[in-house]
Amino acid sequence: MNAVSSSDRTCVIALGVNGPVPADHPSPLLQDYPRGVARIGRQLKELGFSGRFLAWDREYPAGSPTFSEARCAFKPFCFLEAKAGGCDLVLWLDASIKIKQPIDVMFEFIKQDGYLIFAGGHTVGEYCKDPALATLGIGREESFAMPSCSASVIGLDLTNHRSLQFLRRWRELASDQVTFPGPKWSGVGNWPRTASADPRVKGHRSDQLAASVLALRFGMDEWRSSHLFLEYFENDRAYVRRLLTDPEDCS
For the residues 26-34, what does the mean pLDDT come to? Predict the structure, then answer.
């Protein structure tokens, strides 16, 4: 874990750990997450961010499943490790996030509401495999009536009781070996329909759907708009992709 020390308890966190190329990898492109994490660190400095930056680019936080074991299950573990390190206001950024302007206002939102969550563009049901419905405690039709947040940028006030309840339950779901593992795509293009027999289900979005259901359940439902997201951030996925030349490069 890399850390830039600061005198305050405000923190940006990110994880970008490469893993082995899957045997059925369909594309000559693969993810290069440490490149994105390094860019976040540079941009925070360039934009004058005065808080701490905690980044995992080689190892996962203690106790966290790997990406191949459960997609994005590491996020709540990163929050908890930041808390253990004395951070109060914590903002998660996916490795693919590009910061467009200073983000001080994001921490004002986190302090004001206890959390920062941005609205997504689809329902929970569209990207939730059947077995996860039970662990989340929702029905299939109910899932299609629930909005989904975006989990690429999410903030929590770790001194706030409700936000801590959310975080601890998010970690439990990330560790149950049911809620987070699943196919990114299902019944879309050439991808087999494995998430659900329901043709409305297009895949599984693990961290995002779990965060959405929990946030709604805990009354953390004042989500910021996608327009505001685009004022401050860009989800620049192309930046963390590179041409696959040797599978050993990513192991």
Answer: 73
